[in-house]
Design brief:
- This protein is mainly beta and about 80 residues long.
- It has one domain.
- Helices cover about 10% and strands about 50% of the residues.
- It has one helix and four strands, in the order αββββ.
- It has a four-stranded antiparallel β-sheet, covered by helices on one side.
- Strand 3 and strand 4 form a beta hairpin.
- The longest helix is centred in the first third of the chain and has 10 residues.
- The radius of gyration is 13 Å and the shape is elongated.
- It starts with 7 loop residues before the first helix and ends in an 11-residue tail after the last strand.
């Protein structure tokens, strides 16, 4: 997560308030959330950060698979995410 610039708080908020990730593979769940960013990441300024969390539920417990971040602006919201 750190390498991708995602904080624990962003991960938690994505899981709590995010919408389903349309690109999650069968048997995998995914949530997406767009955060205002307005900062520099790796030398370039970005307005927003889109965080996607992929996970599975195994024996009633969540198993985190991966977290990805995309930096940019005007990301789709509320389920319009296509990957």
């Amino acid at each position: 997560m750190r390498q991708r610039g995602v904080t624990l708080r962003e991960l938690e908020r994505t899981l709590q308030e995010g919408w389903p990730a349309a690109d999650a593979k069968p048997g995998t769940e995914g949530k997406v959330f767009v955060f205002p960013y307005r900062r520099t990441w790796e030398g370039q300024f970005y307005e927003e950060k889109e965080v996607t969390v992929y996970y599975k539920i195994v024996e009633g417990k969540m198993v985190l698979l991966t977290v990805k971040a995309r930096y940019g602006k005007a990301f789709p919201r509320g389920g319009a995410h296509a990957g």
